[in-house]
C-alpha cells in the first residue's frame, strides 16, 4: 500500500487518480463538488457504486470525486481531514470502520459540510441522509427463496442449511441474518448452522464450507451473505467432486460474479442489494442536503422501486427493497450485476 498522504497536494493527486467522470468543461456548469469516500476498490459493488453515484449526481448537477480508503481506517480518517479543508458541497461516506467514522462525521458536520451515508448505515451520530438497502427484508426474501428450494427438493421445507455471514461487526450481515432467521423460524424441520467469514474474506468462507461439509455431509444448501463468498464456496464444491445443484447455493448482493454462478448452475438465487437505487436516492435528495432544506418522510419512487424514507434519531433514512434473481431473470438489465446503469436521468425531489 502507498504511504499515507497527509498534504492537500497529496490528497488532490490521490483524488485525480481515484476517479471522476466529469470533464473540465462540464465541471464548470456544475452546482458544486461532492466527495465520495469509498471504503475499498476490491469488489465490484464498490467500484460500481462510484460509476453509479457519479452518473446520478451528474444528472442533478454535481461533480463527484472518489477517494479510495483502501480498507484502512487511518487512511479514511486522514481523507476526511483533508476533504474538510477543501470545503466541498457535501460528502458521501461509506465507512471503513463504523465506530471510527462517528468522529469524522461529527467533524465534517461541525465544519458545515453535509454528510450523506451510503450503504453502510451509521446510527451512532446524526448525518444528513442515509441511503441503505432493506437488509432485514433481504433476509426475508432469502428465507422465502430457500423455503421454496427445499420444498421443491423434499415436498416440504426441511433439511440442513449452512449460513455463512460476513464480518459480525458489520450491521449489514447481522440484519440479513435477523431477517432470514425470523422467517425461517416458521420451518422447524430446517436446521441452520451459522458461521461468520471474518473480514468478509472469501478464503474464510471457503474454509467454513470445506469444514462443515466434512462435519455435516448432508448439508442441502449454503446461504452466503455476499456473492464473492459464493465464488469461494462453489470452488470448494467443485473440488469435492460435486456437480452444480448437488448442494444448492443462495447469496445476497447481486454482484456480477453471483449472476455468473447462476448462469453456470452453481447458484440458484441471488437476492440483490439494489445498489443503483441506493445511489440514485442520494442524488434525488442532494439539493435538499446541500441547501440544508427539510427532507419529508414518506414513500418515494426510486428507479421504479417503492422506497420508504423515515426520520430516525440519526437523521433521514431511506430504505430500498431488494429482489430475487434466478435463472429466469438473471439477464434483466435492471440488476446492477449486469453493469448497465439506468439511462433515464434522476430528478431532484422538489
Largest sheet at a glance?
Answer: 8 strands, mixed
Multimer state: single chain
Percent helix range: 40-55%
- Rg result: 21 Å
Strand order of the largest sheet: 2-1-3-4-5-13-12-11
* Net shape: elongated
Number of helices: 12
Structural class estimated from helices and strands: alpha/beta
CATH level-3 fold name of the largest domain: Rossmann fold
Plain-language structure description:
By secondary structure, the chain is an alpha/beta fold. It folds into 2 domains: 8-127 and 274-320, Response regulator (Rossmann fold), CATH 3.40.50; 135-272, Response regulator (Rossmann fold). The chain is 41% helix and 22% strand. The chain is built from 12 helices and 14 strands. The protein has helices at 8-18, 24-28, 44-59, 73-86, 98-110, 135-154, 171-184, 202-215, 227-239, 256-264, 275-284, 286-290; strands at residues 32-38, 62-68, 90-93, 115-118, 129-133, 159-165, 190-196, 221-224, 248-253, 269-272, 298-302, 305-312, 315-320, 324-325. It has an 8-stranded mixed β-sheet, sandwiched between helices. Strands 7-6-8-9-10-14 form a 6-stranded mixed β-sheet, sandwiched between helices. Helix 3 (44-59) runs parallel beside helix 11, helix 8 packs across helix 9 (227-239) and helix 9 runs parallel beside helix 10. The longest helix has 20 residues, at 135-154. The model is unreliable at 1-25 (pLDDT under 50).
